[in-house]
Amino acid sequence: MSLPLADLPPWSAAPEAPAAPAARVTDGLTADIAVVGAGLAGLATAHHLLDRDPAADVAVIDARHPAAGASGRGTGLLGPRVGPPIDVAVRRFGPSVARAAHLASEAAVAGVVELCSTVGAAAGLRPGGQIVATRTAPGLASLARQDAAYRSLGLTVPVLSAAEIRRRVGVPYHAGLLYPGAATLDPAALTRALAAACAAKGARFHGDSPLLGLRPGDGRTPTELRFAEGTLRARKVVLAVNADAGRLGLPVGTVLPLRVHALATAPLPPELRAALGGESGTALVDSAAPAPYFRLTPEGRLVLGGGRVSHAPLPEEEDAPSRDAARRLLEERLRRLHPGLAEVPVAYRWSGRIGMTADGLPVVGRVGGHPDIWYIGGCCGHGLAMSAAHGRYVASHLTGPAPAGSRLPWHRDRAPRLPLGSRPARALLRAYLRQLEREAHRTP
């Protein structure tokens, strides 16, 4: 059964952390450093900038408010996954890059755990690991290839049998890979706490101010950011705008905006909570993207995401029939996940946008060759850990020489470009997304 509900995640109702008054950008404002985007990437950038230079005048600007976008609408999976599966990464980028990327993603998870403690958002953090599992023969073959690749690179990612998975999460899968350092958390609580920490350090906040465009500086004049009611000029700019890169015309390659969906149940009865891994705190991700994944919250709700994916060029536009079909698919999966979930009420359902690149790697680099304008985005659905790490990374480059050996494997100015301007290209994209949906339907 389902209940009347809002199109929001359960953590959206939490009180907002105190922050500086978020006035709109009006008239002509100035700052030393402007950070556009008050999600995890932008706020982590501001946080680390002010750690390094407490006297800096840092302005954080958002189209709405902190945690309003993907950072507040995620499902809270904190795992060390970045880029394509490790065996594909080895073939595509070479062993050294694949290994460095995985180690960087593990470090990113540890960085978020540390950040939760630093800003007072550790209450919702649940360690327990993350299992990437399969119920299909092709999935078993894929996990076997990944296991071989991890071992060849000297990386420890244990293999779990069906019985071991069942003991942890109570759901039948054939086999899986365990990422033991992973965890789950409340993404909106972390984002709001980070906003409060930035405000306490002196960051200025401007809300309800969508960026309309920018005019880069030339070394002598600052970069000018244009908004509906005014401008803001800054010596250095960080564009943590993820899937809005295309709308703004940023020359960072193609960061494809895709809409994904999730739901959350009412709190489960204690016995069902225990059966679904309440004691272990383990999250489970089906290896066949975009097949569903699930985790339990501290209060015992089951959060389920995955399934239908759609192209979403504008955040406010959502096709109602597509949305309703995605929700039906997720609720069907919920009912089939475990017999005890057959009558559990669905209490929340929502959607959000992610930024996807053609090669699966994020984009963190300078915009158009300008040394003082940086872009962060394209985490391909794995942004919870990586966004915070990217903020630290960009702050280190903006405030002085970056530490030796710290260069990210995906430090680059642009992703591969996809020619989406033509009608045939858009038709191919729709066909690809429908194929993903069919594969999600076929997954048991």
From TrEMBL:
<feature type="domain" description="FAD dependent oxidoreductase">
    <location>
        <begin position="32"/>
        <end position="395"/>
    </location>
</feature>
<dbReference type="Pfam" id="PF01266">
    <property type="entry name" value="DAO"/>
</dbReference>
<dbReference type="InterPro" id="IPR036188">
    <property type="entry name" value="FAD/NAD-bd_sf"/>
</dbReference>
<dbReference type="InterPro" id="IPR006076">
    <property type="entry name" value="FAD-dep_OxRdtase"/>
</dbReference>
<dbReference type="GO" id="GO:0005737">
    <property type="term" value="C:cytoplasm"/>
</dbReference>
<protein>
    <submittedName>
        <fullName>FAD-binding oxidoreductase</fullName>
    </submittedName>
</protein>
